[in-house]
Automatic annotation (TrEMBL):
Keyword Endoplasmic reticulum applies: yes
InterPro entries: LexA/Signal_pep-like_sf, Pept_S26A_signal_pept_1_Ser-AS, Peptidase_S26B
GO process terms (BP): signal peptide processing
Compartment(s) of residence: Endoplasmic reticulum membrane
MF GO annotations: serine-type endopeptidase activity; signal peptidase activity
Coiled-coil stretches: none
Protein name: Signal peptidase I
Membrane topology value: Single-pass type II membrane protein
PROSITE patterns: SPASE_I_1
Keywords: Endoplasmic reticulum, Hydrolase, Membrane, Protease, Signal-anchor, Transmembrane, Transmembrane helix
Lineage, uppermost ranks: Bacteria, Bacillati, Bacillota, Bacilli, Bacillales
């Protein structure tokens, strides 16, 4: 039983570290591509404007989940591609069904008018589940070579060195006690 507890105690920080690294790397990659990365239907997106303030602001990261259009309702916050193929995250103000097709009217919380573009189900990327304040600034910084080095390579190298050291340390102590 003690062995299991030791293994779990060692595994939890590793799993948390890997999840954080996956989120940061996915944000980094999604900033450099036209399509956001998806982890089991969940997509981290960086907020680039204050159109949804005070709900969330530029620099925040939102986590969206792919959803069936039938499950969306007024008041939900969705991410979608507009007519110019820009990724937008706004609140649904109304849903209108025409000829069996749902049309979603959206508006930013900080905007005075409903968006001109009407969104259809095939343009929707996902529904906002939660947001992490200011994490997007970190992902924006990691886009540059210095930020990538400081926030990805250095911690990863430190983690590998620490892991190797922890493996070597017990062996050296055994040799010391034998002599």
């Amino acid at each position: 039983m003690e062995q299991v507890v030791k293994i779990v105690r060692k595994a939890i920080p590793i799993v948390i570290f890997l999840l954080i690294m996956m989120i940061i790397v996915s944000i980094f990659i999604s900033l450099n591509s036209s399509k956001p990365l998806s982890f089991f239907g969940y997509k981290p997106l960086t907020v680039l404007s204050n159109s949804m303030a005070p709900t969330f602001e530029a620099g925040d990261v939102i986590i969206t989940r792919e959803m069936d259009a039938e499950d969306l309702k007024e008041g939900d916050i969705i991410s979608y591609y507009n007519q110019e193929n820009n990724l937008i995250t706004h609140r649904i103000t109304s849903i209108v069904g025409e000829d069996g097709v749902k049309h979603f009217y959206t508006q930013g919380d900080n905007n005075n008018a409903v968006d001109e573009d009407v969104t259809t189900a095939d343009e929707i990327v996902g529904k906002e589940l939660f947001h992490i304040p200011n994490l997007g600034f970190l992902s924006q910084y990691t886009k540059g070579p210095m930020g990538f080095l400081l926030f990805i390579i250095v911690p990863l190298t430190g983690y590998v060195c620490l892991t190797v050291y922890e493996k070597i340390k017990p062996k050296k102590q055994e040799e010391f006690t034998k002599s």
